[in-house]
Write a structure and sequence with these properties.
Blueprint: H1 5-11, H2 13-28, H3 33-41, H4 46-58, H5 65-78, H6 80-96, H7 104-109, H8 111-127, H9 131-145, E1 147-149, E2 154-155, E3 160-161, E4 167-169, E5 174-175, E6 180-181, E7 186-188, E8 200-201, E9 206-207, E10 212-214, E11 218-219, E12 224-225, E13 230-231, E14 239-243, E15 246-251, H10 257-260
Parallel strand pairs: 1-4, 2-5, 3-6, 4-7, 5-8, 6-9, 7-10, 8-11, 9-12, 10-13, 12-14
Antiparallel strand pairs: 14-15
Helix pairs in contact: 1-2, 2-3, 4-5, 5-6, 6-8, 8-9
Length: 274
């Protein structure tokens, strides 16, 4: 592996960094040597490592690790955007989450990242018409990670789910690029209506912990949704909404709320008045 590292670094700097971090972690904690080798150091590409991790975490008595590994490998071979999106997700977490100090952490330890990569494989299956298998993976992701993302949902690259727990993203939801979600966020419907019934989240949006965004509504680019809010109407671009039901309380405060991750509200904004 060491002989290949200069070439890997030139072609894939993200994966090269993961390998370097894994080697350092091995030296610091030899007892994790088996885990580090099987999950990272034995693999030639990030895609191979993700496929292994996918199969390991989601295998059950109903579907073996070997079958799941074959599914993941086929998906990554067939659609290179899966690997590209995974790299964008990985870098997004490293840049936005102050608890993430190494690239290998999301791959090995962060269930938000792992659940999103599993969703991406399930979404590939859905688009191939293999809907029962896609739904099976959705079920396993929900059981293992407590994150429920319908495989038909459309999610862009650079997604960060921080403290990934109790996330729900419905069938017709759309999530743009470079979005950040905190725990217990729901992108859901409002009743039993069929058809296009879930939110459309723009690029660069930050959605705080416990927020519920419901119905076929538009959340504009680079907006912020405060923690605990219930959003039932469209949100303009570059604005902050808060409350139950949510209303505009000010500007978003910066060009990239999802990157800055500032969830505080200015004490002069309307939500502190009356």
């Amino acid at each position: 592996m060491a002989r290949l590292r200069p070439q890997i670094a030139a072609l894939d700097p993200v994966w090269s960094r993961v390998l370097e971090e894994a080697q350092q972690a091995l030296e610091e904690e030899p007892l994790l040597g088996g885990m580090l080798h099987y999950n990272l150091l034995h693999h030639a590409t990030l895609e191979s490592a993700l496929g292994y991790r996918f199969a390991l975490k989601l295998a059950s008595n109903e579907l073996s690790e070997q079958i799941l590994r074959e599914i993941a490998d086929e998906a990554y071979r067939s659609d290179r955007t899966l690997g590209e999106n995974a790299r964008a997700d990985l870098v997004a977490i490293f840049e936005r989450d102050p608890a993430c100090h190494r690239y290998l952490q999301p791959i090995l330890y962060f269930k938000g990242f792992q659940a999103v990569q599993a969703y991406r494989v399930a979404h590939w299956l859905w688009r191939q018409g293999r809907r029962d298998m896609a739904l099976f993976i959705q079920m396993r992701v929900s059981e293992v990670f407590s994150i429920d993302i319908h495989p038909a949902a459309a999610i862009g690259k650079g997604l960060m789910i921080d403290h990934g727990h109790a996330i729900v993203i419905g069938e017709t939801a759309v999530v743009g690029d470079n979005v950040s979600l905190l725990h217990s966020v729901t992108l859901g419907g409002t009743g039993k209506e069929d058809g296009d019934r879930h939110p459309k989240i723009g690029d660069g949006v930050l959605i705080g912990a416990g927020a519920k965004v419901l119905g076929n509504i538009q959340v504009g680019d680079r907006s912020r949704i405060a923690a605990g809010s219930v959003v039932l109407q469209d949100v303009p671009c570059c604005k902050t909404v808060a409350g139950v039901p949510a209303r505009v309380v000010g500007d978003a405060g910066c060009d990239q709320p999802s990157v800055r991750m500032d969830q505080t509200l200015d004490k002069d904004c309307d939500c502190f008045k009356g």
